[in-house]
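PROTEIN DESIGN WORKSHEET
SECTION A - STRUCTURE
LENGTH: 240
TOKENS:
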């Protein structure tokens, strides 16, 4: 709070983006409390951004600023930026998801026996010094369960997270409810449950394909343990 008072957030023709890092007690097998954080954004330009999403990825910053500054001439990053708030856009997005034509940044899944559609998967990676001091060794993939309210803002209901920790060949899965009375509470769920839903399979696919440092033998071992219920044990609701 004291640091924020040093800034004049009323400065004209300026865009402010204040991002908080994660907490200081981060485990090797990352949990929701370890990677959920907050961002404050204020746009005082003549064409201000008004976010449609209340929950975003930290990676959205780069694409949003490129789009805002007009530096992305090929519009490569436009689809990854924070969309402008518009009720019609939100209604259209819901319809496109139902029709399977959504252009939301995503991992597209489908095995030919189901209606493949795009799902936005939020990615992250990390490591603890005691596990791997120089390279990432923990992969995180999350999907939001959302509901769209009438004012056109995509409201999060919950976040489902899949985690792979390579040094211990461990997988874990969690569900975090955004409107729980205790903001630090989350549930540990069996990793095998992710195989039962389209969103869960998108998480698994992202963990399998989007992290180049992953050792395939270790990942296979972790997946087998996860299928057999030997991943991180479900613990019900936890106070993180």
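SECTION B - SEQUENCE
RESIDUE ASSIGNMENT:
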């Amino acid at each position: 709070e004291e640091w924020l008072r040093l800034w004049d957030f009323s400065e004209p023709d300026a865009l402010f983006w204040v991002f908080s890092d994660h907490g200081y007690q981060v485990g090797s097998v990352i949990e929701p409390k370890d990677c959920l954080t907050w961002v404050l954004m204020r746009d005082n330009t003549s064409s201000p951004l008004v976010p449609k999403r209340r929950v975003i990825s930290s990676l959205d910053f780069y694409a949003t600023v490129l789009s805002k500054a007009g530096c992305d001439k090929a519009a490569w990053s436009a689809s990854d930026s924070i969309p402008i708030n518009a009720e019609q856009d939100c209604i259209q997005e819901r319809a496109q998801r139902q029709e399977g034509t959504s252009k939301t940044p995503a991992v597209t899944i489908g095995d030919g026996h189901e209606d493949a559609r795009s799902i936005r998967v939020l990615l992250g990676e990390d490591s603890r010094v005691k596990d791997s001091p120089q390279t990432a060794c923990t992969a995180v993939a999350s999907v939001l369960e959302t509901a769209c309210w009438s004012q056109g803002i995509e409201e999060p209901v919950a976040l489902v997270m899949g985690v792979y920790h390579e040094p211990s060949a461990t997988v874990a899965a969690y569900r975090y409810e955004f409107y729980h009375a205790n903001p630090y509470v989350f549930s540990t769920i069996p990793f095998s449950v992710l195989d039962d839903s389209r969103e869960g399979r998108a998480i698994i696919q992202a963990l399998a394909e989007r992290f180049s440092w992953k050792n395939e033998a270790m990942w296979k071992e972790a997946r087998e343990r996860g299928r057999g219920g030997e991943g991180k044990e479900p613990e019900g609701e936890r106070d993180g």
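SECTION C - NOTES
The first helix runs from residue 32 to 35.
The longest strand covers residues 154-165.
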